[in-house]
């Protein structure tokens, strides 16, 4: 992630300097000059530029964190917070015009499922559990690190539904969401300094984990189907990676999905070099008939990960890992050291929904909503060369000249629309494509989505400072 070159111009007055600095940064963040994910200057260099102490900068950044405008990452710096975390922050007046208030923002930056019938289903499940005193007592006790067997069986059923025909409950572990599953696998199979490969534009969760675990994360070239086999082969040959992480179905953020032939090629390369595969199938869960995972071709060197937060509800923090038998005890040991176990109550709720078909019903409702949103996108963005996939709640929008991603996102923010720029997803120091991810389910209504996409289209059709952009056709 590149660090911002923007520096605040400090107003004069009697206010403490840290408040003046914080206010200047807050204004720049809320009017879109500093987009989500942008790295703020290091304390020492900013203090030198502004001729203040590092303690003053620390207090200013702490004030930005308090307002929900920035996040400090231990050992890495301070970053502009993602838009959803900023919605409660007060917007200062902007010299060029007042920024949209949080209540009027259309947040197309966060990938969250649309609420359907989850709350009603949860109430019923809790009533059933509350009516069974013996079960309630069991759920308040310690559970095995890998989860209760009936919860693991439910996870195996979920994997089978996702195309893993030979799903085995003995090889399934329950985790506190898919991100925890990914972290547990990485901690079990890698050591600091190991090389891990991933799509060059990738899910941000793997980027953060690689940094925390001191892994050497290397981006691999992608095309319209995902990882390019020739690039993967070269990287495996020259870098001797420990593992490859990939999202082969409805890739986040590009929406790419590998064909069967591409999956065969990737599996063949990993098999030839003995490289472990960590496959994320979370986005595939909304498909009625997902393609068989790459992991199905390499069951003894693959880790398959899924969860319910993106397809059902963010608060249902239950994830599952299917691992080679030889690795199950090691991953269970990591779970034990992290949190001792996944909360049995949440796991029980998820297992009941999987077993009684509620997950399929809820996914169907979510899928129908996404289909409606995609219909809106087709109508509003007709002729715009965006990328999408069946059952995908997000779109990938490469930008035409003269737009650059940060400037485009800032222009949208001025109009009250939030999107996520490509630099949030790029691994290492690789150049970010000029593109944005648009998450349709972030809109609170179809009307809000229609307005948000209309603003995106109108903004696309104008260049910077009034310059007209080139025609934008597929």
From TrEMBL:
The keyword DNA-binding is annotated on this UniProt entry: yes
Domain HTH gntR-type: 15-83
Any one GO molecular function term: DNA binding
Coiled coil regions in record: none
Listed CDD domains: AAT_like, WHTH_GntR
Cross-referenced SMART domains: HTH_GNTR
SUPFAM superfamilies found in the cross-reference section: PLP-dependent transferases, Winged helix' DNA-binding domain
Keywords tagged on the record: Aminotransferase, DNA-binding, Pyridoxal phosphate, Transcription, Transcription regulation, Transferase
Annotated InterPro entries: Aminotransferase_I/II_large, HTH_trans_reg/aminotransferase, PyrdxlP-dep_Trfase, PyrdxlP-dep_Trfase_major, PyrdxlP-dep_Trfase_small, Tscrpt_reg_HTH_GntR, WH-like_DNA-bd_sf, WH_DNA-bd_sf
Pfam families in alphabetical order: Aminotran_1_2, GntR
Family: In the C-terminal section; belongs to the class-I pyridoxal-phosphate-dependent aminotransferase family.
Protein name (Swiss-Prot/TrEMBL): PLP-dependent aminotransferase family protein
Organism of derivation: Trinickia terrae
Highest classification ranks of the organism: Bacteria, Pseudomonadati, Pseudomonadota, Betaproteobacteria, Burkholderiales
């Amino acid at each position: 992630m590149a660090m911002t070159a923007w520096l605040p111009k400090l107003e004069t007055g009697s206010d403490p300097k840290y408040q003046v600095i914080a206010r200047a940064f807050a204004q720049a963040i809320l009017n879109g000059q500093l987009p989500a994910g942008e790295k703020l200057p290091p304390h020492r260099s900013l203090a030198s530029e502004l001729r203040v102490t590092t303690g003053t900068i620390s207090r200013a950044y702490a004030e930005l964190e308090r307002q929900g405008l920035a996040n400090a990452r231990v050992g890495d710096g301070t970053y502009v917070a993602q838009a959803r975390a900023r919605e409660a922050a007060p917007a200062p007046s902007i010299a060029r015009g007042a920024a949209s208030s949080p209540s009027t923002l259309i947040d197309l930056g966060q990938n969250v499922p649309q609420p359907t019938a989850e709350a009603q289903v949860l109430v019923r499940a809790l009533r059933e559990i509350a009516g069974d005193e013996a079960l309630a007592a069991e759920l308040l006790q310690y559970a095995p690190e890998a989860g209760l067997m009936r919860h693991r069986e439910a996870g195996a059923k979920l994997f089978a539904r996702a195309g893993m025909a030979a799903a085995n409950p003995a090889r399934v572990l329950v985790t506190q969401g898919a991100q925890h599953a990914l972290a547990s696998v990485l901690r079990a199979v890698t050591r600091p300094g190991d090389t891990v490969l991933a799509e060059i534009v990738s899910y941000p969760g793997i980027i953060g984990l690689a940094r925390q675990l001191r892994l050497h994360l290397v981006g691999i070239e992608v095309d319209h189907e995902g990882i390019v086999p020739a690039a993967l082969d070269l990287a495996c040959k020259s870098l001797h990676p420990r593992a490859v992480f990939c999202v082969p179905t409805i890739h986040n953020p590009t929406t790419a999905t590998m064909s069967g032939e591409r999956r065969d090629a990737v599996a063949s390369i990993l098999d030839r070099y003995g490289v472990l595969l960590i496959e994320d199938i979370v986005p595939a869960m909304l498909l009625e008939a997902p393609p068989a995972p790459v992991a199905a071709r390499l069951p003894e060197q693959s880790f398959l990960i899924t969860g319910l937060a993106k397809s059902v509800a963010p608060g249902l923090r239950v994830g599952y890992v299917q691992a080679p038998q030889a690795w199950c005890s090691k991953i269970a040991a990591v779970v034990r050291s992290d949190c001792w176990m996944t909360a049995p109550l949440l796991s029980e709720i998820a297992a009941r929904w999987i077993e009684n078909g509620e997950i399929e019903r809820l996914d169907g409702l979510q899928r129908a909503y996404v289909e409606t949103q995609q219909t809106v996108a087709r109508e509003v963005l007709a002729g715009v060369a965006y990328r999408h996939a069946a059952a995908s709640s997000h779109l990938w929008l490469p930008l035409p000249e003269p737009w650059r991603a940060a400037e485009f996102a800032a222009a949208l923010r001025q109009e009250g629309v939030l999107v996520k720029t490509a630099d949030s997803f790029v691994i290492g120091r690789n150049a970010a494509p000029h593109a944005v991810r648009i998450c349709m389910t972030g809109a609170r209504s179809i009307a809000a989505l229609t307005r948000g996409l209309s603003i995106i289209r109108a903004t696309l059709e104008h260049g910077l400072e009034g310059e007209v952009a080139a025609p934008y056709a597929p």
